[in-house]
């Protein structure tokens, strides 16, 4: 009787907890032109959806066991990526590791001292653990690097700022490569290319090539080439678990950094269960990597930005957290997404597609929703490529093609927008005033009201060409309204405002 109790208990424990053992081989299977039954089934489940290109394909990461099971069902799919293709692509294409990225950034800062600064914007989770004496994390001591690129790089000038980021998701290293390629392009062409020179002279361009260095290491070192999250120690055993495998075939640690941003955190396509691939973390903004990016955004309220992921050849714009969550600036964001998508050829012909994030599938706690929802930043996610880790013969092409998309964003800053300064009419000091545009800011879908920034009182509103009614207001001041502000397609409309104290 006693021994039976022990067996029952053991079985119960085994059912509830992850097992110790080697991770099962995984692979990506593709459903071509998936019908609603297939997309509904995978998108609404806990399945590890690798990519979804509407009307074209739905790719899912499955374990070898799940694969065997699927073979017994009457469904058409084929295997398109395997553990060994992931590994050989990583090696042959020479994806940069953390040490190489760090060395390259330092070399760039040395080569272009007037244009480029490296800024440590925070520690990775691994570094925090290691510093706290958890020696198993000593090999994961990573700083998160931001690179500021601009002329007069050490001064904050009265200029708009944009960002390019990569590497939120560990298994998507092509985003890191694209971000590094754009950074190199801008620096290398400052002298020779008048357009690039103008961009650097008139804009602050910020790069965060690798937001999730610990996760990236897990992939680059081939500890788990399918890893997605950071390495938060969910089970608090003071180590990143390589062999403690959960029911879904993944290790038990980690938070999905693209579910951890503190805007509408936890509301859709995210999980409260730590072992889930889309675990949102214990709280919005709990992860140091996300805190680093959130602080950068708070510090430098960006006009636009791109976060690179893989894959699907898509340009996505906010919001993403709920079906039909049309952002107040939806029309102008969509138009820019269209221009970008048009400029980026897909690897097998055709162009990138564009749509709001929610239309692909709703998910919350993402970079873009935080960036747009708090600061009104035109914040895009570009799903690069047609696989997580494209092979050597595609990497350069993907970087080159996506540089075009980045240049479309830069070019957009010279076009249809309303910009100017809001200052106090007596002291002339900058004011953080609300800039309210009728037909946009009266949307029922919430965004933090757009305000001018504190240092110069500068505001930037990217708009579609047309005529607008605009109100500038600040508590303690008399509001000012204009009924017919004309926005032209090919140049910004300048409007400096002096507010009078009540
Ligand atoms: O799910 C994500 O975090 C992104 N896709 S990925 O395959 N790179 O993981 C997409 C986020 C885009 N936003 C929405 N779909 N709402
Ligand atoms: Zn991703």
CATH topology of the largest domain: Aminopeptidase
Name of the CATH homologous superfamily of the largest domain: Zn peptidases
Number of domains: 3
Largest β-sheet summary: 8 strands, mixed
CATH C-level name of the largest domain? Alpha Beta
Q: Would you report the number of β strands?
A: 21
SSE class: alpha/beta
Report the C-alpha radius of gyration, rounded.
Answer: 24 Å
**Ligand list:** N~2~-sulfamoyl-L-arginine, zinc ion
Distance between the termini: 84 Å
Overall description:
- Helices cover 31% and strands 23% of the residues.
- The protein is an alpha/beta fold and 502 residues long.
- It folds into three domains: 11-86, Alpha-Beta Plaits (2-Layer Sandwich), CATH 3.30.70; 90-221 and 301-412, Zn peptidases (Aminopeptidase, 3-Layer(aba) Sandwich); 417-499, Immunoglobulin-like (Sandwich), CATH 2.60.40.
- The longest helix is centred in the last third of the chain and has 21 residues, at 392-412.
- The model is unreliable at 1-20 (pLDDT under 50).
Brief characterization of the structure:
By secondary structure, the chain is an alpha/beta fold. It contains 14 helices and 21 strands. The strands form 5 sheets. An 8-stranded mixed β-sheet has the order 6-7-9-8-11-14-12-13, sandwiched between helices. A 4-stranded antiparallel β-sheet has the order 3-4-2-5. Strands 15, 17, 20 and 21 form a 4-stranded mixed β-sheet that branches.
Write out key terms for the chains shown:
502 residues, alpha/beta, Alpha-Beta Plaits, Aminopeptidase, 4-stranded antiparallel β-sheet, 14 helices, 23% strand, disordered N terminus, binds N~2~-sulfamoyl-L-arginine, binds zinc ion
């Amino acid at each position: 009787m006693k021994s039976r109790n022990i067996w029952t208990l053991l079985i119960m424990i085994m059912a509830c907890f992850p097992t110790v053992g080697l991770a099962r081989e995984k692979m990506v299977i593709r459903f071509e032109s998936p019908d609603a039954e297939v997309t509904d089934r995978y998108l609404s489940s806990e399945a590890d959806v690798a990519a979804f290109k509407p009307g074209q394909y739905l790719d899912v990461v499955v374990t070898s066991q799940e694969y065997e099971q699927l073979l017994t069902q009457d469904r058409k799919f084929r295997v398109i990526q395997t553990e060994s293709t992931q590994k050989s692509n990583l090696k042959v294409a020479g994806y940069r590791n953390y040490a190489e990225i760090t060395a390259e950034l330092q070399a760039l800062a040395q080569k272009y001292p007037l244009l480029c600064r490296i800024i440590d914007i925070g520690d990775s989770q691994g570094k925090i653990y290691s510093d706290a004496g958890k020696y198993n994390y000593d090999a994961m001591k990573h700083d998160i690097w931001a690179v500021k690129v601009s002329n007069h790089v050490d001064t904050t000038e009265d200029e708009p700022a944009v960002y390019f980021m990569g590497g939120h998701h560990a298994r998507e290293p092509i985003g890191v490569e694209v971000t590094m390629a754009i950074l190199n392009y801008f620096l290398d062409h400052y002298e020779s290319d008048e357009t690039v020179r103008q961009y650097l002279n008139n804009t602050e361009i910020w790069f965060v090539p690798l937001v999730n260095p610990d996760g990236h290491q897990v992939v680059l070192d081939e500890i788990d080439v399918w890893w997605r999250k950071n390495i938060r120690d969910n089970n608090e055993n003071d180590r990143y678990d390589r062999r403690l495998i959960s029911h879904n075939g993944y290790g038990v640690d980690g938070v999905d950094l693209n579910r951890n941003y503190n805007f509408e955190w936890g509301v859709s396509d995210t999980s409260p269960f730590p072992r889930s691939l889309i675990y949102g973390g214990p709280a919005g903004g709990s992860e140091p990597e996300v805190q680093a990016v959130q602080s950068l955004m708070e510090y430098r309220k960006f006009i636009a930005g791109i976060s690179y992921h893989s894959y699907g050849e898509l340009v996505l714009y906010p919001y993403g957290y709920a079906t039909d969550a049309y952002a107040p600036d939806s029309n102008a964001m969509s138009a820019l997404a269209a221009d970008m998508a048009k400029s980026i050829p897909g690897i097998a012909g055709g162009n990138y597609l564009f749509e709001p994030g929610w239309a692909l599938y709703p998910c919350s706690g993402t970079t873009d929703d935080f960036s747009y929802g708090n600061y009104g930043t035109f914040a895009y996610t570009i799903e690069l490529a047609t696989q997580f880790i494209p092979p050597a013969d595609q990497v350069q092409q993907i970087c080159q093609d996506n540089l075009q998309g980045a240049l479309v964003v830069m070019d957009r800053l010279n076009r249809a927008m309303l910009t100017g300064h809001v200052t106090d009419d007596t002291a002339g000091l900058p004011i953080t005033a609300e800039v309210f545009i009728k037909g946009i800011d009266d949307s029922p879908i919430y965004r933090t009201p757009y305000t001018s920034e504190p240092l110069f009182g500068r505001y930037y509103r990217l708009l579609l060409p047309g005529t607008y009614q605009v109100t500038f207001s600040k508590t303690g001041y008399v509001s000012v309204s204009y009924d017919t502000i004309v926005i032209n397609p090919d140049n910004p409309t300048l409007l400096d405002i002096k507010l009078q104290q009540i």
